[in-house]
Amino acid sequence: MSTARMENPVILGLSTQNGQMRGSVKPAGGPGGGGGGPQTTQPAPVKPSSTVNNGNSQPAPTDVTATKGNEFEDYCLKRELLMGIFEMGWEKPSPIQEESIPIALSGRDILARAKNGTGKSGAYLIPLLERIDLKKDSIQALVIVPTRELALQVSQICIQVSKHMGGVKVMATTGGTNLRDDILRLDETVHVVIATPGRILDLIKKGVAKVNQVQMIVLDEADKLLSQDFVQMMEELLSYLAKQRQILLYSATFPLSVQKFMNSHLQKPYEINLMEELTLKGVTQYYAYVTERQKVHCLNTLFSRLQINQSIIFCNSSQRVELLAKKISQLGYSCFYIHAKMRQEHRNRVFHDFRNGLCRNLVCTDLFTRGIDIQAVNVVINFDFPKLGETYLHRIGRSGRFGHLGLAINLITYDDRFNLKGIEEQLGTEIKPIPSSIDKSLYVAEYHSESGEEVKL
């Protein structure tokens, strides 16, 4: 665990709306220093979620370790693609990749259910890239995701994996960015487009994005894409594609909307279900019963006594995100914040800097719940408890990525008590009262093989 360095106080305020706030940093309060400012030793760059934790002493959940023993070489992939895979540090395919890759390579539709952080991005990007024909200068594959941040993350992984393939052109396009830039980019060759639904549909309707040659479309976080917010756009988008196309659906949950879409558009899909239970193994869940006025004090105690590598703190509104970020900086801890009402360039900068370890704490809304893969995050705090089990599942999935350990702490008020009980029943899990001591081996990797050390609260 890196230690926090001291830094000069910076004037507090939200006038810049850039999501990056810094207070005068307290010395580390507990082992590892709780909140803290930018570290002198930053966490290592985050590897994508399909990295296998070979040699890690901590036991990972079965959804990332119960493999069949296959190797990436077994799938007869192009040598150049294999080079990119191994340079990413992906040593062996995870279970979702073992199930998906050979089926996707055969051209069959897939309906895949797997937890966040188990390698879904690699499960569809690898066969997608293998099937790209560089002799054609048309768009051959679409990856549709619900948020801008996830689009940027997936496109970066795609670019890195394909960098030896001799000219695969990958483009990310999302709302909130300059449409003219996207139009100019599509004048050139593009093979893979990773997009949010509204923007790609806009480009198609304008005749700029030609999708008649698309042979594969991926819906990542399909439950969100097929919710009421997006389903009409997805139906319209598919109407522009050729009838003979391959559809891959990936998500942690599959409500009735997904079943209806599958029945309408997928041709005898191969179904993959690696979800023995909804809640993430490897994430220890606690609640602290507090009043609204006690929440900030409780958060301060957690910061000073837990060993936090990086934390994500969830609020239920953009206004509360900004207010809490200001409070945290006043307490002396540096934090970033992010929500949907910020300008896109500021959101991009916050996401990039937090992912690269420039700050330990991020306050955010549910904008940040889906598919964002930051393995350094080992603590998630629900400052405001969510109302829906699906929201809770995706929030706590920010820790415990790909078999890493994680800790989820929920601040529960009197008004939240029925939601707490309902989510426990819906997800078939138990959220326990926070104990007087939390064993560091539950959420800090380097303590997992050591015995007896606990954090006193």
Set out the fold topology.
Blueprint lengths: L19 E2 L40 H4 L13 H9 L7 H11 L4 E4 L6 H11 L10 E4 L3 H14 L8 E4 L5 H8 L5 E4 L1 H9 L10 E5 L1 H4 L5 H9 L6 E6 L4 H10 L4 E4 L9 E7 L5 H11 L4 E5 L3 H13 L4 E4 L5 H12 L5 E4 L12 E6 L6 H8 L9 E7 L4 H11 L4 E2 L3 E3 L14 E3 L1
Overview of the molecule:
The chain is α/β, with parallel strands linked by helices and 457 residues long. It has 2 domains: 20-46 and 280-456, P-loop containing nucleotide triphosphate hydrolases (Rossmann fold, 3-Layer(aba) Sandwich); 62-273, Rossmann fold (3-Layer(aba) Sandwich), CATH 3.40.50. It is 32% helix and 16% strand. It is built from 15 helices and 17 strands. It has helices at 62-65, 79-87, 95-105, 120-130, 148-161, 179-186, 197-205, 222-225, 231-239, 256-265, 295-305, 318-330, 344-355, 389-396, 417-427, and strands spanning 20-21, 110-113, 141-144, 170-173, 192-195, 216-220, 246-251, 270-273, 283-289, 310-314, 335-338, 361-364, 377-382, 406-412, 432-433, 437-439, 454-456. The chain has an 8-stranded mixed beta sheet with strand order 1-11-12-10-13-14-9-15, with helices on both faces. α4 packs across α5 (148-161) and α7 packs parallel to α9 (231-239). Residues 1-67 are annotated as: Disordered. A motif (Q motif) lies at residues 70-98. Pfam families: DEAD, Helicase_C.
Low-pLDDT segments, ≥5 res:
1-17, 23-62, 450-454
Distance between the termini: 20 Å
- Count of all domains: 2
CATH architecture of the largest domain: 3-Layer(aba) Sandwich
Q: For this structure, what is the CATH homologous superfamily of the largest domain?
A: P-loop containing nucleotide triphosphate hydrolases
Instruction: Just give the CATH class of the largest domain.
Output: Alpha Beta
Overall body shape:
globular
Strand tally is 17
Percent of residues in helical segments? 25-40%
Main sheet: which strands, in order across?
A: 1-11-12-10-13-14-9-15
Secondary structure class reads alpha/beta
- Biggest pleated-sheet summary: 8 strands, mixed
Question: In percent terms, what proportion of residues is strand?
Answer: 15-25%
Per the CATH scheme, the topology name of the largest domain is Rossmann fold
- Mean pLDDT across all residues, rounded? 80
